[in-house]
Amino acid sequence: DKEVRAIFLRLFAQLFQGYRSCLQLIRIHAEPVIHFHKTAFLGQRGLIENDFLTKVLNGMAFAGFVSERGPPFRACDLFDELVAFEVERIKAEEGNPPKMIKHVRELAEQLFKNENPNPHIAFQKVPRPTEGSHLRVHILPFPRINECRVQELLQEGLARSQGAPPATRGDKKCVVPAGPPVGMF
């Protein structure tokens, strides 16, 4: 499944290479608004007549993509690196399937490492119950829940959470690399 995801990652990196050069940050509002110049992007790539890419750029998914990935200062990821730094490599691999497959496998490995950052954590398997274990007499019934105690614990938790500082994500933000200009494609 990671290799299929890596293939789609490469596909979207190829489709959207240079999109950052067509973003415009408008700061006249209380919160900045990001605008994407679709015609400039299509014109610079020579794809004005391409119906597929035009429909992709007009879709709601791409609008969400621009609003999420448009800010110049945010946490970067594998897609940003592909779009910014792997332009030439992807171009060179178009005529060489073994190199392309090798790159897809490298991306799949990176995706796997991103989702499983600590490979040393072993998942403990729970053994299956033995045959007839449900007939044993020594199993105690589940205790009744004390509603008053549950309410007390909830109130304590609420009191602690109101005094605690808000939780923040540990993502390190950086300036997103713009990559080469669209005209190179």
Automatic annotation (TrEMBL):
UDENN domain segment(s): 1-76
Alphabetized GO MF terms: guanyl-nucleotide exchange factor activity
Listed GO CC annotations: cytoplasmic vesicle
GO biological process, one term: regulation of Rab protein signal transduction
Cross-referenced PROSITE patterns: DENN
InterPro entries cross-referenced by the UniProt entry: dDENN_dom, DENN_Domain_GEFs, Tripartite_DENN
PANTHER family noted in UniProt: C-MYC PROMOTER-BINDING PROTEIN, DENN DOMAIN-CONTAINING PROTEIN 4
Protein name per the record: MTMRD protein
Lineage: Eukaryota, Metazoa, Chordata, Craniata, Vertebrata
Gene: Sbf2_0
